[in-house]
Amino acid sequence: MRFEILTIFPQIIEQYSNESILKRGQATGAIKIIAHDFRKFANDKHNKVDDTPYGGGPGMVLKAEPIFNCLKSLGLIKGKLKNKNSKTKIIILDPAGKRFDQKMARRFSKLERLILICGRYEGFDERVYKFVDEKISIGDYVLSGGELPALVVAESVARLVSGVVGNAESLKEETFEGFVEYPQYTRPEDFMGAKVPKVLLSGNHKKIEEWRKKHSCG
After folding, report:
1. What per-residue confidence (pLDDT) applies to 101?
2. What range does the domain containing 183 cover?
3. What is the CATH number of the domain that holds 184?
């Protein structure tokens, strides 16, 4: 699966994707993560990607042309229209978008290409959205740009791609019936008087599973 992230700060994407699970997933060939600097697709000699908003107002707005040109260079736009491909999704990270969750991650993990567009400043020229399949948000709070949300989405989806997570049973338990992880314990059995629940030491797998379901968040 290919993750292609459009950003004006490709180094943020490249640094994170060369660590930990994303690095391992790329090493196995299960995924590939590419950062595209859409500043390179600006129409002027200064590579300007933003401008003041029509009608006035604070801040700067990301221009449509650099993003359009970048998408076109990736074969995602033909003429003035977005190519239709059921195995590819173009996503904008937008605080007004639909809340990202595990169900959405599973849906995205079935794709061949996931395109993630990162915003900055006061957001995008509205005309960018005609080339986008979905708007998604990772939460109701303010960040300086879309790079961190894009990495959140990429890692969450990548974990569900076959060959990325080594322990399939661990992945199965993480997503079991939509539950969030249950409490975990390791040695020592007694830490400053706080003891491991006896059921986890019992060896009774049925009771352990029941305990884990009961104490899962979800």
Report:
1. 97
2. 179-214
3. 1.10.1270.20
